[in-house]
Amino acid sequence: MGDKKVSLPAKLINGGVAGLVGVTCVFPIDLAKTRLQNQQGIQVYKGMFDCLAKTVRSEGYFGCYRGAAVNLTLVTPEKAIKLAANDVFRQKLSKDGHLPLWGEVLAGCGAGTCQVVVTTPMEMLKIQLQDAGRLAAQRPVSAAAQAAAPGPAPSLVAPPPQAQSAPPQRPSATGITVQLLKTRGLAGLYRGAGATLMRDVPFSMIYFPLFANLNALGRDSAGNQADTQAQAPFWQSFVAGCSAGSVAAVAVTPLDVIKTRLQTLQKGAGEDTYRGVVDCTRRIMEREGPAAFLKGATCRALVIAPLFGIAQVVYFLGVGETVLGIFG
């Protein structure tokens, strides 16, 4: 960074390691976010802590990590692309060691755009696995509500015990991928790509400039900005990453709700399906009100803040340079 040229392979390794560490730490909160955002009619969970408690009670501790394998597999290239692309764009747009605000925003825009090629299929698979537990928990609640309702039984009432089939098998990432490729082709894995772009590009445009400026606070103003970032202590990178991540995460939460709803394939009883971003936005507004666009905002902030705080610390540790030095 700055006068010290860091190779692209080192940037990719740094980003990948950063993503693995961050996701491992915050994945249960991300699962709670997905389940809260997908709730429409029947409210299975009252909030983040209620969701996590019920998940542990019904699915065990490792139920909080449902879908983590997909996330951990694909977060390496995703975070590598995001962080490395931002650095590359910043270097290309810098002149005489100075990068204006518009250049920081443009670099973030480029980073957010590049990552979508990996982010979309990763989130598509992760959401199905994370939400399976919510749908399973919703069934007895739905059956109880129907049984308590006055009048004739509705047509969707569960069959009598002797006629009930065995509990549905939990989905797997491989099974979902194969089914999507068979029925919808490669486009099936990229369902919601437009909504993902709408979320990730503004996020990166907010996050990276804000992080760079927070990370540069108190550093030697005589040096160029890239050198200033490299010299920042770990705690400052962590605090800057957490702060910038929280602000950006909350700012784009409405877009994240839309993306999550569009990418969820299996719907619960009485839940809407959507034809696109505009249709999803209109239906949420009409049926659930504007507050629905902030579902999971706290969870999202609690996920993104430490995720990017940890990511920036690991990234600035220069793991990639060390690895390449050992094996190169």
UniProtKB/TrEMBL annotation:
Coiled coil segments of this chain: none
Annotated GO MF terms: L-aspartate transmembrane transporter activity; L-glutamate transmembrane transporter activity; symporter activity
Keyword Nucleus carried by entry: no
Record keyword Transport present: yes
Location(s) in or outside the cell: Mitochondrion inner membrane
Annotated keywords: Membrane, Mitochondrion, Mitochondrion inner membrane, Phosphoprotein, Repeat, Symport, Transmembrane, Transmembrane helix, Transport
Annotated region described as Disordered, given as residue ranges: 149-172
Start-end of Low complexity biased regions: 163-172
Domain of life, source organism: Eukaryota
Pfam families associated with the record: Mito_carr (PF00153)
Biased composition (Pro residues): 151-162
Solcar repeat ranges per the UniProt record: 6-92, 99-217, 232-321
Mode of membrane association: Multi-pass membrane protein
PANTHER family: MITOCHONDRIAL 2-OXODICARBOXYLATE CARRIER 1-RELATED, MITOCHONDRIAL GLUTAMATE CARRIER 2
General function of this protein: Responsible for the transport of glutamate from the cytosol into the mitochondrial matrix with the concomitant import of a proton (symport system).
Family per record: Belongs to the mitochondrial carrier (TC 2.A.29) family.
Protein name in UniProt: Mitochondrial glutamate carrier 2
